Amino acid sequence: MSAAGTSEEIVFGTDGWRGIIARDFTFANVRKVTRAIAAYLETAYSKDKPVLIAYDPRFLADQFSQTAAEVLVDLGWTVKMTDRDCPTPVIAYNARHLNTAGALMFTASHNPAPYCGIKYIPDYAGPATPEITDTIVANIAKASDEPPSGKNTDKISIFDPKPAYLEFLYTLLDVDTIRKAKLKVKYDALYSTSRGYLDLVLDHCGCETESFHTWRDVLFGGGMPEPKGEMLVELVEAVKKDNADLGLATDGDADRFGIVDEKGNVLTPNTILLLLAKHLLQNKGKKGAIVRTVATTHLLDNLAEKYGLTLYETAVGFKYVGEKMRETDVLIGGEESGGLSILGHIPEKDGILADMLVAEAVAFAGKPLSQLVEEVIAEAGGPLYNNRLDLHLTEAHKAAVLDTYLKNPPTEVAGIQVKEVGRKDGIKLYLEDGGWVLLRPSGTEPLIRVYMETNSPEKLQKVGQEMQAKIDKLAPVAA
Q: b/e map of 176-190 (b: 16 or more CB within 10 Å)?
């Protein structure tokens, strides 16, 4: 069956195209998108460079990958496929290490089990920038979804991406210091690609490790492969029960991290970015800029100012953080949704590295993780409190909200004066007391996200209530 009529549903978001398996994410559409990517490759690389293909543990992801490989070799490319499901940062590293034309990664990251996705990772080992994805999307309309001829399958080979990645990873860690600390660690793989990677690294670094959910389950145990509180209940209990030093997890493709302290608190990505920025500065003597997205905590700004570092604010999406990492020396770059990378690493988020850096920070300090967190928050002038509202609106309501805030942004929120309005990504209201509010529309659904940060829980509640009320009032009156 032709999928030509469904190409308008193939939308590349902040990190590739995702869809529901068998409804949107079909073999026909995979062939179509692969040919659109191949048309871009023709303009950027010579065919003597291989294309890598990897996939996460999702249902049919390995077979979608095989289909993409057959399409590419039919078009004259050489393909190297991973020998099993693979973390995104691992295939990204190999895309650079093996001098390739980039990689195709089949993943829907932290999305629920019915989803699959595909993203193209260029040879610089970071997310494709908008000009690349815009070219690929423009190619989709004229790309065929026909099955490949079946020729040239001898140009598909299988390789193991693990050894080269691990060898590189160990150059970024002080393995000896971690070994001396003899940390007790609980690790929840959440059925993700990090199994067989993070547990191996923890063992190599001399940690006493107990691991959970380290097998492939395409239903992710009935939950989501997202390292947030509701998914980490078992990990939290294990940490508390056994007096472990910390608990670690990753999302489905291991590019995002989840951290539990020794008290069983699930730490936010904002907190981990702050903690690791200080660790890299104080314990490892690193220097460079700090890069964060518009939706990420301003405690990073305070820390950057204290240490005389440049702070860059980008649009949401790690591709923008990664782009800045390719332009200048970046100590740490990250986003509130759980991705980070550091100086000397690839410009791609890496949950395995992030988890191990937290273990390294604890090993260096010889203090409980909760204490390290308290100290760095105080040093950065915190605490600050964050919240996010996900408002499901009609398209008309969404348009009315954006039009109002773009043309006539408020001069105060919950009695706090707005000192500046930013339009880098959505509308960001910088408040006089150091807090902020960000309204950001979803590009693919009738949803507006409202992020906010203030210096007290009471203020946070007031800001949230007022933003909700103001947005509710902008709902169009039904005819």
A: eebeebebbbbbbbb
